[in-house]
Predict the structure.
Amino acid sequence: MPAMKRTRASKALPPARREALLKTLQDRFEANPNRHDGLAWADVRARLTAAPDKLWSLHEMERTGGEPDVIGLDPDTGQYLFADCSPQTPKGRVSLCYDGPALRARKEHKPQGSAVETAQAMGIELLDEAQYRRLQSLGEFDTTTSSWVKTPPDIRALGGALFCDRRYGHVFVYHNGAQSYYAARAFRGLLKL
């Protein structure tokens, strides 16, 4: 999926689409209380309706197969944390290399885009390893797929990038060349609201 190019004006969802998304998010929130113990949907909805740009980002997460849901509160800022909670890596974001420099460095068989640039265009960020492990404590994700995660600068400077998955009841962290891409690897995003 190529990086999305949209103007700021196009980030406002039409009323019908906004209400449909809010209903989807509410249904998912209520069906998965273990992901956000002690949080109330009315509070989340109030914050969502006050931030149309964040609602647009959640729409992009949903549109690309991420199934976003609240996974808690940021302890430092009090912001709600939304993450992609699809059982497998989001299908609408597969076959992306790690970032823009990796995409530009690839000479043959270039993917359509990169995970980092696509996340930025969506208004979200990649989960880091700790956030990915936290998500995995709330369920079992990526049991047949994998997801790029935010890579520390020292690893990225050497040409590598990290990805994670769950196999054999454990969460694993691996490395690949940042320019690699696979049909079963995308990325999981995080949105703070």
